[in-house]
Design goal:
The protein has 15 helices and 22 strands. It is an alpha/beta fold. Strands 15-16-17-14-13-19-20 form a 7-stranded mixed sheet, with helices on both faces. The protein has a 5-stranded parallel sheet with strand order 10-9-8-11-12, sandwiched between helices. It has a 3-stranded mixed sheet with strand order 1-5-4, covered by helices on one side. Helix 3 runs antiparallel to helix 5, helix 4 packs across helix 5 and helix 10 crosses helix 11. The longest helix is centred in the N-terminal third of the chain and has 24 residues.
């Protein structure tokens, strides 16, 4: 069966028949394992391979015996070389008519589509995503490029005429590129988040130095390969690999005109302070996590709420900035809701996510596991564990960090497990009688990314939509209580500590952040 005849995988079409997709994935997984794993992947700077810097190895979280590849850690000198290449390319790329840039960018999207199964499998093996999560990410990456390109087109390149004070003057307003953007991507969505950030910068006329996560260099290398195959000019998109020290070297470099970042609140806030301390401020476009409360009202449909909560809390092992990690349940339905949620959670298949029926794979590394261990100890001491709390052992479980999805209740409202982002398959349950008070408590955190609500009473829905302090609100979604945003369908904007600009990705206000405003006044005699 051809790719075009197969159903597209998104984060919400959970009831479709994906048997054909799985059949093709069986072949692609074997091919990627045989042909792509274990290679050396250099930096890509100015259209050339650059094998400079200390070599480090990345292994799969699925099985630590699987070598993903060997990469070079970029130091300050390599960062400087990449910035210079991007600066040299930016003059012609930024001066190019935006219509011509879109032709090149759309070729890039077409190339990503051509390679989407391979890219999805790279995400699966590098991150431990389930098959359908990985395919959804590949489809999202393609749609992100095409959506942002359409935004440039619909806004006529963000050029518009202004009023005139005199008949013989011509006035206009336009958005123009900043210059060179640094793009620092996370491990959990190494394809979609990388492509979304870097394509926006490129569409706007900037050039890019891109650093994938040290855990996802293979996906980064394949993105670069697609860009080269699409014919993007040398130096327009450059990739350097490395860990946090490389990211810090980028932030410290004065040659960047802006940054796009997805990661933790602490790292993003530190980046903002560092960049703002320079000779002048430069844009830092950041999405920085969330706690993402869900409210299950007295009028809620219990089955839909339990399904949506399970998927939101435990999809991708809870390693999503939008993962539902806290649920408030009305006391009148608390017992029946929790019983159903626990049953669904205990039925989750956990294992090597290259298997068709696996919903949860491993968490990313030992650091995440130690965080889980401590959270489980705290939960047992200060509350009650309803499900999970344990590491899995035996077979494949001994070669990665596989843990049980965990549900906890009876914690004090102000307990750190109810306030802090864990980035784990870890859900806390709170009981309420007053929805307004529950929403106020859910708002009393540093984050404001997403929130969900299950209710059939319109007054309860309206109260949630009016009071919840988050950039993306969802009501009655079985596919995910707080997860599943898609380009052009839901925007993904972080309020409070979840973002910096009050404008988010996937929507119409994201692309303009990669440009600055300029007015032109031309006097004609």
């Amino acid at each position: 069966m051809s790719q075009t005849a197969l159903p597209r995988v998104t984060y919400s079409n959970i009831q479709a028949d994906f048997s054909g997709v799985h059949d093709l994935l069986d072949t692609v997984i074997a091919k990627v394992r045989a042909e792509l794993l274990g290679q050396a992947w250099p930096h890509r700077i100015g259209g050339e391979d650059v094998a400079t810097g200390a070599i480090y190895e990345a292994v799969s979280p699925i099985d630590n015996r699987i070598l993903l590849g060997r990469f070079h850690r970029a130091d300050a000198a390599v960062v400087d070389r990449a910035v210079a290449a991007a600066r040299a390319a930016q003059k012609s790329w930024g001066a190019m008519p935006w219509q011509d840039r879109l032709v090149a960018i759309r070729r890039f999207a077409d190339q990503l589509e051509e390679e989407k199964f391979q890219l999805a499998v790279a995400c699966l093996i590098e991150v431990g995503k389930s098959r359908l999560e990985a395919m959804g990410e590949a489809e999202e990456a393609i749609d992100l490029v095409r959506y942002y390109a359409s935004q440039m087109e619909e806004n006529d390149g963000f050029v518009r005429p202004l009023q005139r004070a005199f008949d013989n003057e011509e006035t206009s307003d336009r958005l123009r590129p900043y210059g060179v953007f640094g793009v620092i991507a996370p491990f959990n969505f190494p394809l979609a988040l990388s492509v979304g950030m870097l394509s926006s910068a490129l569409i706007a006329g900037n050039t890019v130095v891109y650093k994938p996560s040290e855990f996802a260099g293979l996906t980064g290398a394949l993105i670069m390969r697609a860009a080269d195959a699409a014919g993007l000019p040398a130096g327009v998109l450059n990739m350097i690999c490395g860990d946090g020290s490389t990211g810090q070297a980028m932030v410290d470099h004065p040659g960047f005109d802006g940054f796009a970042f997805t990661g933790s609140h602490k790292v993003g806030s530190d980046m903002l302070r560092k960049v703002a301390s320079g000779a002048y401020n430069r844009p830092v476009i950041a999405e920085m996590g969330g706690k993402n409360p869900t409210y299950v009202a007295a009028s809620a449909g219990v089955e839909r709420a339990a399904q949506g909560m399970m998927r939101s809390a435990f999809g991708l092992q809870g390693q999503k900035c939008s993962a539902g990690s806290k649920v408030y349940v009305h006391s009148s339905i608390r017992d029946v809701f929790v019983e159903r949620l626990v049953a669904l959670t205990k039925a989750i298949r956990i294992g090597d996510p290259s298997g068709r029926d696996i919903f949860m794979g491993p968490i990313i590394n030992e650091t995440a596991f130690r965080r889980f261990e401590q959270a489980s100890v705290d939960a047992a001491r200060d509350g009650r564990i309803l499900a999970g709390g344990n590491q899995l052992t035996g077979g494949i479980y001994d070669h990665g960090f596989y843990i049980e999805p965990t549900i906890v209740d009876s914690l004090p409202a102000d307990h750190p497990l109810n306030r802090d982002e864990l980035f784990l398959p870890f859900l806390t349950v709170q009981v309420f009688d007053d929805l307004e008070a529950a929403i106020a408590d859910g708002n009393a955190i540093a984050y404001g990314l997403t929130a969900g609500c299950y209710a059939s009473d319109q007054a309860e829905i309206d109260l949630f939509l009016d009071r919840a302090q988050a950039g993306a609100l969802y009501v009655n979604r079985a596919s995910g209580a707080t997860t599943g945003a898609w380009p052009g369908i839901q925007t993904f904007c972080g309020w409070k500590g979840s973002g910096l600009s009050g404008k988010g990705g996937l929507g119409p206000f994201y692309l303009p952040q990669f440009m600055r405003e300029q007015s032109h006044t031309i006097w004609k005699d």
